[in-house]
Amino acid sequence: MEISSQMNGDLLVATVAAERIDAASAVLFKDTMRSILDGAPDTTVLDLDNVTFVDSSGLGAIVAAMKLVQPGKRLVLARLTPTVQRLFSLTRLDSVFEIVGDVADACDETRQAG
Amino acid sequence: MRAKRPSADTNKQTLHVTATNLGVRQALKDAVALVADMGVVAADQANVELVLGEVLNNIVEHALPHVPGAGFELAISHRPGQLCFATTDQGRPMPGGEIPSSDLPRTDVAIHDMPEGGFGWPLFLMLADDILYTRQDGTNTLEFRLPVCV
Question: Structure pTM?
Answer without folding.
Answer: 0.91
